[in-house]
Structures are given as C-alpha cells and as structure tokens.
Design goal:
The chain has 12 helices and 13 strands. By secondary structure, the chain is α/β, with parallel strands linked by helices. The strands form 3 sheets. The chain has a 6-stranded mixed sheet with strand order 1-3-2-4-5-6, sandwiched between helices.
C-alpha cells in the first residue's frame, strides 16, 4: 500500500511544485500509525507511506526520498533489514528507526547495518517527532547538490586511530590486526584512562576512536557524546561487552556511534568497522558540509562540566603545530 499526500491547490494560484519540498517515506504495518504520521507531516512535506518494506525499496529506486522512517517489528521485513538495504540503494537518504520495543539486537542492527540518524520511541511526542524528522529531511535536502559532486582526492596520509581501553592485550592484538591488514595506512594510539584519551586528542590528528563504555573507573559515555557534539568529523566505534538498551539509544541519538562491536574482540568485525569508519571520516574531511548528517542531540546528563569545556577546546594545540 502506497499513498502520497499533497495539499490541495487553489485554481486561482500557480500549482506548487512538490519537488521543492523534502520527501518523507514512512513504513509501518499498521495503517492507523501511517494515518497519524500523514496528518503530522502532510502540510510541509511530500509524504509517501507503505505497509510493505519490499515496496519501500522499490520506491527508493525510483523516487528521491530525503528521509526514510521505518518501524522495526513488521511481518514481511524488519525495520533494520529495510534500513540496511536502503543504505545501499539510496545512501544519501537519512534513515530513522521507529519502534515501541526495547529490542537490543534491533538497536545494535540499526547502528551497524542501518547507520541510523535517530532512534525514535513509540509512542512519540508530536512536537519531538516533527522536529527530528524535519531536521533529518532538511539536512538531506540541503546536502543534495553537494553530495552529487565527486570527491576531490587529496594526498594520502597516515590516519590516526585511538583505542581507549584498559586492556593491554586488546591494544596489542588490535595493533597486530591493523599492521597485518592495513600496513602503513593507519597509526594506532592507546589510552587506558580518560585523561590519556584527552591528551591524545589535544595533540594528535585522529580520524577514528575505538572505545569501551567503561575504562577503569571512567564512564566513557559522556566523553563519546560530548565529543560527537563538538567534533562530528571524528568517527566513534564502541567495543564493549556492556549491553543496555537505553544507553544504546542515547549513543545513537546523542553520540552517532558508527559501530557497536562486542567483546571479546573479533578480528573480522573490528577491521570492517575500522575500514568503513575511515571511509566515513574521509568523506567528512573532504566534504566538510557532510558533518550535518552526523549532527546529534545536545548531550544530556553530563555529570562533569569539565569534560564539555575541555572537549570544546580540543585540537587548538594540534592545529597550531
């Protein structure tokens, strides 16, 4: 089932060009949900809706869609499966997951496979969902012309990776993995405390950070969220055995983490995460405006104001060197 809602046009006025408005595609197996979403967005957006994930993929192949918003639990295709395939078909479309369930595997999949912009809980707040979806669509709309241009290649450089973890074994193994698989391409730094991580960020040029949730006595989630807020060009991968649904949602919405990987560390998974993270970091470096796609909510519940002020001032010494 597909439907498109456009506002009526008075005969006395020129017809509005629907292509001038961002296009939204909502996917949910409950038609009452789709009716509610159409009512919320039809006045300012071109709205497409369908109950079928397969049909949604066909729409993406023939339509320019700025934001795709999908439910997770659907009988024909899960939301994560839809977002994963949508990423390949229409990589410039902003992807958001809408669900009323705290499904840890779905949340992890939305990070690793769907690379979602936001995770929205049901039941939603009307003002909040309008703001989130509107922001996503407007970002995609504003970046449309820029993303169509080919990347300007620059000179190759050795790019920095920072591991934040209190295990020397993980640091040694990761260094061996990188040296074997990407010889001469990346330089790995290792920090086993939050203070050491800050020191490296202040003095090194880094593209990717790989961090556990807890390092020694340090809770790294405020660091991850605040860093992405002020420096969205840095790509973050979380490597941990910690699994908490509410925290994961925060790390999506406030931290835009690129991958969530389990411990014990799996070589193939971490290398794929590094490779895709570097591709993303290069895109942001060569197309600075693309940072908008990784804009995050303002971090909440940051206990230490010093983290904010210190991260805000990062890279000053590095930029002067």
């Amino acid at each position: 089932m597909i439907d498109m809602i456009t506002p009526p046009v008075k005969p006395a006025r020129p017809m509005q060009n629907a292509d001038l408005r961002p296009t939204l595609l909502f996917v949910d197996d409950e038609e009452r949900i789709l009716r509610s979403l159409r009512m919320l967005f039809a006045a300012n957006f071109r709205v497409l809706v369908t109950t079928d994930g397969h049909e949604a993929l066909e729409i993406l192949k023939r339509e320019k869609v700025h934001a795709l918003i999908s439910d997770q639990r659907m009988p024909l295709m899960s939301g994560v499966d839809l977002l994963r395939q949508a990423r390949d078909i229409a990589p410039d479309t902003m992807r958001l997951l809408l669900t009323g369930y705290s499904d840890i595997e779905a949340i992890i999949g939305s990070i690793n496979d769907g690379e979602v912009f936001r995770y929205i809980n049901k039941p939603w707040n009307a003002d909040e969902i309008r703001a989130i979806v509107g922001e996503a669509a407007n970002i995609a709309m504003s970046l449309g012309q820029m993303l169509a241009k080919p990347l300007e290649q620059s000179a190759k450089e050795i790019r920095g990776i920072l591991l934040v973890d209190d295990s020397a074994e993980i640091a040694n193994n990761l260094r061996e993995y990188i040296d074997d698989s990407f010889p001469g391409a990346f330089h790995l730094e290792w920090a086993n405390t939050l203070n050491d991580a800050m020191a490296f960020l202040e003095t090194r040029k880094l593209s990717v950070i790989i961090s556990d949730i807890n390092v020694g006595r340090d809770d790294m989630t405020p660091f991850i969220k605040t860093l992405k807020h002020f420096h969205p060009h840095i790509v973050t991968i979380v490597l941990t055995n910690f699994r908490d649904t509410s925290l994961l949602v925060e790390l999506i919405n406030q931290g835009q983490i690129h991958r969530f990987l389990p411990k014990p560390m799996r070589k193939s998974m971490v290398l794929r995460g590094i490779q895709s993270g570097m591709v993303l970091a290069d895109e942001i470096r060569l197309r600075p405006a693309a940072k908008q796609r990784h804009k995050v909510e303002t971090p909440k519940n940051i206990p230490d104001a010093g983290i904010i002020s210190r991260i805000r001032g990062l890279f000053r010494s590095a930029s002067k060197s």
